[in-house]
TrEMBL record:
Protein family according to the UniProt entry: Belongs to the glucose-6-phosphate 1-epimerase family.
Record: residues binding substrate: 66, 84, 89
Gene Ontology biological-process entries: carbohydrate metabolic process
EC category name: isomerase
Residues forming the catalytic site: 167, 271
InterPro entries (alphabetical): Aldose_1/G6P_1-epimerase, G6P_1-epimerase, Gal_mutarotase_sf_dom, GH-type_carb-bd
Protein name as it appears in the record: glucose-6-phosphate 1-epimerase
Length: 314
């Protein structure tokens, strides 16, 4: 068992599933389940829950947990032969009891490394050997950082190709009061129109109906502004050129058994992803994809991201 300390607690969660609680200064915290390697909670110093988790989420293998930050690997979406969003979010990960120290965050002490490798079962559906190391780290200021390192450990000399997303469900007060900045004027593939390619209009995104768009070649920083709560989420990413924006709206919400009919009003998925250009790794090669999310008081009255404030500390 990894060494217990005030910053990292290994315990049981819903349905007795193993989880890890990360704690930092002033009460900030995060929780990640070994099932799916999935973050399900991220709270600020006022213990406000910043991620959306459906009240009907099913914590039962082999169903994906509806909310938090599901890991989509080795396939985003359902374009290829695997189950939607791949198998990583439906598998039991293990904890590395002795992870290498955080290089980029020398001060980081609240972090855990979860490991997923191929199983005989997976090899039947995806015949590749890999090691996936997911580091979940909570900074003293309460920022949540996910770092994925995926290595091709094939011994047969074969490369493999995958797509990937951090399927982040942000909790919002009211979807009609939310604006997203950083994606305007970009091209996107519209999942509601057979992934046809369009160009976004020139101002911040607002939401009045179902949206399911894969924005391409997006900037490092994206802001999600919750006007009612006077809160802005900042998403900073590295190695993840695309960003998926999804809200099921009312009809799809009603069709999902693990999602409340009205819950679409209180969530928005903005997913740092690599979809348009899949990643190919030769044996021995490793890919790294990072996202860091912060929640700050909305001081952006003009609605523009203050470049001085938003830096990628990874
Ligand atoms: O229900 P799932 O498998 O978690 O997928 C939810 C949504 O995930 C989004 O990322 C996709 O763009 C949507 O098309 C999909 O409906």
């Amino acid at each position: 068992m990894a060494s217990e300390n005030v910053y990292v607690e290994h315990c049981k969660g819903i349905n007795d599933l193993d989880k890890v609680i990360l704690r930092e200064n002033r009460g900030v915290s995060a929780e990640v389940y070994l099932y799916g390697g999935q973050v399900t909670s991220w709270k600020n110093e006022r213990r406000e829950q910043l991620l959306f988790l459906s009240s009907k989420a099913i914590f039962q293998p082999l169903k994906a947990i509806r909310g938090g930050i599901p890991i989509c690997f080795p396939q985003f979406g359902n374009i290829d032969s695997l189950e939607q969003h791949g198998f990583a979010r439906n598998r039991l990960w293990s904890v590395d009891p002795d992870p290498p120290p955080c290089s980029s965050h020398a001060s980081a002490r609240a972090f855990v490394d979860l490991i997923l490798t191929h199983s005989e079962e997976e090899l039947k559906i995806w015949p590749h050997r890999f090691e996936f190391r997911l580091r979940v780290a909570l900074s003293p200021a309460g920022d949540l950082m996910l770092t994925s390192r995926i290595r091709n450990t094939n011994t047969d000399g074969k490369s493999f190709t995958f797509t990937f997303a951090y399927h982040t469900y942000f909790s919002v007060s009211d979807i009609s009061e939310v604006r997203v900045e950083g994606l305007e004027t970009l091209d996107y593939l519209d999942n509601l129109q057979n992934r046809e390619r369009f160009t976004e209009q020139g101002d911040a995104l607002t939401f009045e109906s179902e949206v399911d768009k894969i924005y391409l070649s997006t900037p490092t920083k994206i802001a999600i502004l919750d006007h009612e709560r006077k809160r802005t989420f900042e998403l900073r990413k590295d190695g993840l050129p695309d960003a998926v924006v999804w809200n099921p709206w009312d009809k799809k919400a009603k069709a999902m058994a693990d999602f409340g009919d009205e819950e679409y009003k209180h969530m928005l998925c903005v997913e740092a992803a690599c979809v348009e250009k899949p990643i190919t790794l030769k044996p021995g090669e490793e890919w790294k994809g990072r996202q860091e999310i912060s929640a700050v008081p909305s001081s952006y009255c003009s609605g523009h991201i203050d470049p001085r404030r938003v830096t990628f500390t990874g």
